[in-house]
Amino acid sequence: MQKAAESGALTTSAEMAEGEVAERQLRLERFLKEEPLPEPTVRDEHKLTLRNIGELEQHVAARRREADGARSELDLCRGEYLEVIASVLHDYRRRAAALAEIARAKLQIELPALQNTDRSTRRELLSESASTARLQPRLEIWRTAAASR
Q: 3-state DSSP call for residue 143?
């Protein structure tokens, strides 16, 4: 290609040459408008800032993974806790029914609905009296006609 250009075998059209000149002038104008390169200390500070941002993003991602792990462990523990509470309430109902049978009384017990959600547990822990009231079953006992004789 270089030999062909030196020998004059390559020809360039006037439009093609004008287009190249216009493009080169545009690129030169853009280059001249650019601000000078920042000082080396500024470039180093920029690199350091980018590295710090990367490290902080990694730190946040690691803490987010830890929080997700803690949240799933909390859900598991809350579920086990609610299983124990449900078992205690079931045992309470069974014993109350046995006592009602001995006393020949009619028994009606409403056990609370226990849900494994963060919102329901947090709501119940807001005040001790409120949480205690929610966990206590509603108990009503009526004497039957046979027992009153």
A: strand
Which residues pair with residue 109 across a beta bridge?
139
Distances (CA, A) of 91 to 60, 77, 101, 111, 143: 46, 21, 15, 11, 22
Low-confidence ranges of the chain (pLDDT < 70): 1-2, 4-5, 8-12, 118-149
Amino acid type, 119: R
Q: What share of the chain is helix, strand, coil (3-state, %, to 5)?
A: 75, 10, 20
As given in the structure block, the two tokens for residue 21 are 């000149």
Q: What is the DSSP string of 73-110?
A: HHHHHHHHHHHHHHHHHHHHHHHHHHHHHHTTEEEEEE
- Strand ranges, E, within the chain: 105-110, 138-143
Tens-place pLDDT, residues 102-133: 888 888 888 887 888 766 555 555 444 444 44
Euclidean distance between CA atoms 142 and 149, whole angstroms? 14
